[in-house]
Write a structure and sequence with these properties.
Aspartate Aminotransferase, domain 1; 2 domains; seven-stranded mixed β-sheet
């Protein structure tokens, strides 16, 4: 008799990393491949951050601070709040999964826009809750009115990715504020802001102000993108003390390793230099978006560090071949079919040279298949 695993395993969608087939992440990092599939920063960590990591490495015989005390204190100072309203995690994904564990169960409902972050479907599959996917509007943005219509007495959790992954589209804080006023108090709203630093419409702190009015709101932030720390997996939530206690209760102890805590704490000291990097990404975004339009392709209006581009009327037919052609040119993009948008392609911004290689390969591939 073979081992019998939990039946829900068959319904949990796997997460496909943005690494070319037959390669590991280490292979890509040490090669000339333009890795534009995972929305990572093209810049390495700041030198001071690397030094902090090296210094912390000498104490790896000890467990990390289970409360991430110093990091949470620095984050609280950064956002002018209390450490009790900061939950730190092994990437913001861990808080998402912990929220599903703490809030969802069979009979509960989960509402989110689609396409959005590809991990959202895992929450319903793991908890047995009923998921309700609300299609994005014609501009590839969250349709907040349609989402409100799906909220019922059984709804426990609503997810809004802003800027949205994979489309890059952004809703102004004023729109989010109006939405929150109409969401019942029993519903937890997670505003997933992994790319908030790259949008140019609002101050990133504007959404933090909403927490004073809506205790059912949770903001997710990460050090993976703007802070160049994807390899260390450290994210956090701005939330109520009750939400923090709930997600802490269902997570393993010591979930944020000591190197990640040291790196993130140091990175917060260099806001001006991080902002310079963000601005350089935005400059590259304007250039790449313009060049894609010159090729004759449509993109969603991105406010993130990546483009979401349509491959045209026959996009679903040529998507796989275009991705293969890019790979042959040493460029890794993310096929839309894996992200809920067949016929589209998500490509993050790299260095200027990498982006030039992508644009040249894309023009050639589209010309060959359209």
């Amino acid at each position: 008799m073979s081992v019998r695993f939990n039946k829900k395993l068959s319904s949990i969608p796997g997460y496909t990393p943005g690494v070319p087939k037959g390669h590991s992440a280490e292979d890509v990092a040490g090669s000339e491949i333009a890795q534009l599939a995972s929305n990572e920063s093209p810049f390495p960590p700041l030198e001071e951050v690397v030094e902090a990591i090296c210094s912390a490495a000498a104490s790896m015989n000890r467990y990390p601070d289970p409360d991430a005390t110093t990091l949470r204190r620095r984050l609280a100072e950064r956002h002018e709040t209390e450490p009790a309203r900061i939950a730190v995690a092994n990437g913001s994904c861990e808080i998402l999964l912990a929220a599903g564990e703490a809030l969802l169960e069979p009979g509960a409902e989960l509402v989110y826009g689609w396409p959005a972050f590809s991990m959202y479907p895992q929450l319903a599959a793991m908890s047995g809750a009923r998921e309700i996917r609300v299609p994005l509007d014609r501009d590839e943005k969250h349709d907040l009115e349609a989402m409100l219509e799906e909220i019922t007495a059984a709804t426990q959790l609503v997810l809004v990715c802003n800027p949205n992954n994979p489309t890059g589209t952004y809703l102004r804080v004023s729109e989010i504020a109006d939405f929150l006023k109409r969401v019942p108090e029993h519903v937890t709203v997670i505003l997933d802001e992994a790319y908030i630093e790259f949008q140019q419409y609002d101050d990133p702190e504007d959404s933090v102000d909403l927490l004073d009015w809506h205790p059912n709101l949770v903001l997710l932030r990460t050090f993976s993108k703007a802070y160049s720390l994807a390899g260390l997996r450290v994210g956090y939530a701005l939330c109520s003390p009750a939400f923090k206690a709930a997600v802490d209760a269902v997570r393993q102890p010591f979930s944020v390793n000591a190197l990640a805590q040291a790196a993130a704490t140091e990175a917060l000291r260099h806001g001006d230099r991080i902002q310079e990097r963000i601005e350089s990404v935005i400059v590259e975004r304007v250039r790449v978006e313009s060049e894609i339009a010159g090729i004759g392709l449509k993109t969603a209006e991105t406010q993130a560090n990546f483009s979401w581009l349509s491959l045209g009327d026959n996009g679903t037919e040529i998507e796989q071949q275009v991705v293969a052609d890019l790979a042959a040119a040493g460029v890794v993009g993310r096929p839309g079919r894996l992200l809920g948008g067949p016929g589209w392609l998500r490509v993050s911004y790299g260095t200027a040279d990498q982006d030039d290689r992508f644009l040249e390969a894309l023009s050639r591939a589209v010309g060959d298949h359209t």
